[in-house]
Amino acid sequence: MKSKTLEMCSMVLTTALLAACGGGGGGSALGSGASAGRLESTPGTSSTPVYTAAVYPSDWTTTGTVTPPSESSVVTTYPDGYVTTTQDGTSSKPFLQTTLAGLSTPVTDPNGNVSSATTTYNLAWGTPDKNGPAFAAMFPTSAPARLGVMHLMGRSITSYSSSSLGPTINKPSADVLAAWNAGWTGLGKNITLLDSYANIASCSDTAGTSNECHGLHTMLIAGLIAPYANLTGLDMNLNSVGKAGSTGSALTSPVSTNVINMSLGFTPCNNGCGGAPTTADFATLTSTSSGWNNNVVALLNTTSNGFNISNMLNSVVVKSAGNAYQDAKYDTTTAALVENASIASRLLVVGALDKNGSTSNKANIDKLIGSSQYYSNYAGSNTAISDRFVFAYGRDPYASLAVAFNGTGSPVGQGTSYAAPVVAAYAAVVMQKFPNLDAVKTSSIILDTARYDTLTCYPNCDPAIWGRGEASLSRALAPVGRLR
């Protein structure tokens, strides 16, 4: 009788977890009320997912619609014939990054939930912007293109030669043009630029570099990367209401922001002084800037505020690294942001490059125009900053005196202030394509997909200088295989 009981136990255990054998009162081996599961002694065989690329009909910009890519489910078949779905891109059964990236032709953009080693990302597509290809078509050659007259914050941006002609703008990077042609323009996303706007009416200096003009430069750059994002200006003194980017009029109803650009901060010096500040100088700067920094930290952690700009608590925060050619930790605003856990998890600190890098034409840290002096702060020794640090092109997108602000010609400006809105616009474009991403995951994707192989330091790039590398819009829009 005993041998028969053991034989029955053996049969049970090869098929399911049922009652315990040999004594006891019976019941499920999983505990009271638990469902029976399956035990398989032989591994199953998993299918290979089949990728179907997105379909862009020839007339999609007028009457057609874009069909997002798709990925067939991964099913596992066991020796006893049992078949189960193990990956299908849903939130409960996401695709594993290792599965998709390990294919003979890696899948980088699956239109579904994907699990990295630590996080699941919902990469389901949003709706492409039908205006994207038309905007890309405005730059048909490698030469600069003349756009129409532009208006930002109620100020005109025109040709230097004529107030009735639009400005001549340099051709965007290949990554940006590819994004536009695919319909990713930042449509429906809101970028708030914390900058100089309170005295915008007096923005008329010949150099185009006064504090009053600074906000126009950063807003122009963001708008030329994410041309259909909504732009909102908030004055850096926190004493004026939010204003609409096109008209400069005060907001009459709340705007739910997605990205906040901060091309400002407190540094011990400017324009590439280099070296660490003295302990006394840094202590003084920290003390004098603490009040403003504390106010900004509080503002970035609000869901609503008196400026009619809501959702700051859930927005990507992009901060210029500073222009002192020193460790970024000496910018006291950057230091204050990384010390706040809520902000640090969605923060991007941005240094400036001398060009949009490529594998054949690599970029370097930018130098002051007309000199051999570097100016951009670098990632530095504080890993809380260097792990959130990327680089981007740090100059105005036009030739010297090709553009007029309020009728006055503006020479080319440069600085990490101009690199930050590039990355802020990248974030808006990524959030348009992947609308289910929050600020933390959007910033993580931009960090994880940044690259070193477009930089002069490659292949020996020190993270204490270069952080995570050059931000890459093309990789951020197809991130699978790089997510951590």
SSE map:
Blueprint: H1 2-13, E1 45-46, E2 51-52, E3 70-71, E4 74-77, E5 83-87, E6 95-96, H2 97-101, E7 113-115, E8 120-122, H3 132-136, E9 145-146, E10 150-152, E11 155-159, E12 168-169, H4 174-181, E13 190-195, H5 211-225, E14 230-235, E15 243-244, E16 255-256, E17 259-262, H6 279-300, E18 309-310, E19 316-320, H7 332-338, H8 341-344, E20 347-353, H9 383-386, E21 389-393, E22 403-405, E23 408-410, H10 416-433, H11 439-448, H12 463-466, H13 473-476
Parallel strand pairs: 6-7, 13-14, 13-17, 16-18, 17-19, 19-20, 20-21
Antiparallel strand pairs: 1-4, 2-3, 4-5, 7-8, 9-12, 10-11, 11-22, 14-15, 22-23
Helix pairs in contact: 5-10, 6-7
Task: Give a written overview of the molecule.
By secondary structure, the chain is an alpha/beta fold. It has 3 domains: 1-39, no CATH class; 45-122, no CATH class; 132-476, 3-Layer(aba) Sandwich (Rossmann fold), CATH 3.40.50. The chain has 13 helices and 23 strands. It has helices at residues 2-13, 97-101, 132-136, 174-181, 211-225, 279-300, 332-338, 341-344, 383-386, 416-433, 439-448, 463-466, 473-476, and strands at 45-46, 51-52, 70-71, 74-77, 83-87, 95-96, 113-115, 120-122, 145-146, 150-152, 155-159, 168-169, 190-195, 230-235, 243-244, 255-256, 259-262, 309-310, 316-320, 347-353, 389-393, 403-405, 408-410. The strands form 7 sheets. A 7-stranded mixed sheet has the order 15-14-13-17-19-20-21, with helices on both faces. Strands 10-11-22-23 form a 4-stranded antiparallel sheet, covered by helices on one side. Strand 6, helix 2 and strand 7 form a beta-alpha-beta unit. Helix 5 packs parallel to helix 10 (416-433) and helix 6 packs across helix 7. The radius of gyration is 27 Å and the shape is globular. It starts with a helix and ends in an 8-residue tail after the last helix. Mean pLDDT is 89; it is low at 1-35.
